[in-house]
Write a structure and sequence with these properties.
By secondary structure, the protein is of the alpha/beta class. The protein is 39% helix and 13% strand. It has 17 helices and 13 strands. A nine-stranded mixed β-sheet has the order 2-3-5-4-6-7-10-11-13, sandwiched between helices. β10, α16 and β11 form a beta-alpha-beta unit. α5 packs across α6, α7 crosses α9 and α10 packs antiparallel against α11. The longest helix has 22 residues. The relative contact order is 0.17.
């Protein structure tokens, strides 16, 4: 996956900005009172593998990491009440003489597990990794932390409205059903499955590790989590990197709406790539023909769900396959999507087909009970943060208004979600109005966290710096994209704590 390098970097003069300057507020120490027992708890490290089939645990153990479970209050306004656990992992600094401190890692989501991140990030960071204790953390109710599962028969809270009003009505029914299942099975915890509470858990982790400040690296949703943390706990951060930046002012239950145009462009770009490889994938010799193949597959799924191995794929979930494949413009990712599209085209012709490993993993997580845990957590976090009653017709109007410009993306990115039927959050969303020095990374064609969001954060956080990758349809650039320019700039910042004097540009190819 790491095949491109930076051909050109726009770098200004050598002046840099120091990060984390200034006195640490007294509040950054462990608080007195009922929360003291959480902040001062002993961290009991143990092997990460939970058994012989625990691949993640064995990989962490092989890398030299250790794991622990910290106790946190379910409700921070009632610290003497019910408690839950948060799972963390640690890969210790290998250069203790130059140790900076702990760096907390988040892989995105909402609801993405992050316990397994330290070994992978250590490879990306190179020598800079030796200065940090790398801390993976499964957010509350995610992964190995105290679990949440609403008992869904699917794993995705995101789905397409389909091609007509009938499909949209089914979307309304599905969203209402998913919300009701969560309310019926987990009403006692849902109000506390929020980003604000995860940020509070992060501060418990910080204190339990004995750190006055923590560094932080967050991908995608992880950028929003990091932004919220800086607002709730000012002065407690050191080196901060956000890759795929969410504008907190636009964080809502309709989080994907901003990505409509980006996904439509990415689909056209992929069609150009696939048409040049018609001999391999048979999807069409021109971009127009490839797009016609995609439309034919969608039409067939709307007529009757496609049989793909043991799966049934209808018009509501089929677009998510393409949406998932458009998160990267690397050849390997485009090939995975093209292979899946070829399989789906045959299924549209009602042939018996066997899905690839990539497609099998996606369909398992998306359309079966196997994905219920992560899907439930994702919905609970987003809806617990920002659920509002917009009215069902508002979603249909948004779909129809954009369908002409974005026939593929609009029914998915504007569609109704379970949040429309969720109970109102117990806390208002965090207003992030500070100015924190951080390194921001974003591709201009990012299909999830759009470039405009990164620009907005950069304008408000005047002490931050933005690394732009123009022309790339890539969500999450550092490490995974293989861009030596981006990786080098991030690692230089992490190693020195100094931001570039100006914003930078790293060519995609």
């Amino acid at each position: 996956m790491r095949i491109t390098s930076c051909l050109r970097v726009v770098v200004a003069a050598a002046a840099t900005l120091a990060v984390g300057a200034g006195a640490l507020p007294a509040a950054a120490s462990s608080p007195a009172g009922p929360l003291t027992r959480y902040y001062d708890q002993d961290v009991r490290w143990h092997d990460c593998a939970l058994g012989p089939d625990d691949t993640i645990g064995r990989e962490l153990d092989a890398a030299g990491a250790r794991c622990a479970d910290l106790t946190v209050p379910l409700d921070y306004s009632d610290p003497g009440g019910r408690t839950i656990t948060v799972a963390i992992s640690r890969l210790r600094a290998t250069d203790p003489a130059h140790r900076v401190g702990a760096m907390l890692l988040n892989n995105g989501g909402p609801g993405g597990p992050s316990l397994e991140m330290p070994p992978r990030m250590a490879k990306f960071m190179g020598k800079a990794a030796g200065k940090f204790d790398l801390i993976g953390m499964d957010p509350r109710f995610v992964g190995r932390s105290t679990p949440l599962d609403c008992g869904w028969d699917v794993g995705s809270t995101v789905f397409s409205a389909g091609r007509d009003r009938t499909g949209f009505e089914r979307s309304i029914a599905r969203g209402r059903d998913l919300a009701e299942r969560c309310r019926r099975t987990n009403a006692d915890v849902l109000p506390y499955v929020t980003t604000r509470n995860t940020a509070r858990d992060m501060d418990v982790v910080r204190a339990a590790l004995g750190e006055k400040r923590i560094s932080y690296f967050g991908y995608s949703y992880g950028s929003y989590l990091g932004e919220v943390f800086t607002e709730l706990f000012p002065g407690r951060t050191d080196r901060m990197v956000f890759d795929g930046v969410i504008d907190p002012a636009r964080y809502s239950q309709a989080l994907l709406e901003d990505s409509t145009a980006a996904n439509e462009r990415a689909l056209r770009d992929w069609a150009v790539w696939a048409s040049a490889r018609h001999g391999t994938y048979g999807l069409g010799r021109t971009p127009k023909a490839v797009l016609a193949s995609v439309d034919r597959i969608e039409e067939a799924a709307a007529e009757k769900p496609l049989r793909v191995g043991r799966f049934r794929l209808d018009e509501h979930f089929l677009p998510i396959v393409f949406f998932g494949g458009l998160g990267s413009d690397l050849d390997a990712a485009r090939a995975d999507l093209a292979t899946a599209a070829r399989t789906l085209a045959r299924a549209a012709d009602r042939e018996r087909v066997k899905p690839s490993r990539w497609l099998t993993e996606m369909l398992t997580a998306m359309t079966t009970k196997a994905g219920s845990h992560q899907g439930s957590a994702q919905a609970a976090i987003l809806c617990g943060d920002v659920a509002t009653r917009r009215g069902t017709e508002s979603y249909w109007r948004a779909i129809q208004a954009d369908r002409g410009r974005a026939p593929f993306a609009s029914p998915l990115t504007h569609n109704i979600t379970a949040c429309e039927f969720w109970d109102r959050p117990v806390e208002a969303p965090t207003v992030v109005d500070n100015d924190v020095p951080a390194l921001l990374v974003n591709a201009t064609g990012d299909t999830r966290t759009t470039y405009s969001g990164a620009r907005q954060v950069r304008e408000r956080w005047t002490r931050s710096r933005l690394v732009t990758v123009p022309g790339a349809n890539q969500h999450g650039v550092y490490g995974d994209y293989g861009n030596a320019c981006v990786d080098g700039r991030v690692n230089a910042y992490l190693a020195t704590g100094k931001l570039p004097a100006r914003d930078l540009t790293c060519d995609a190819k």
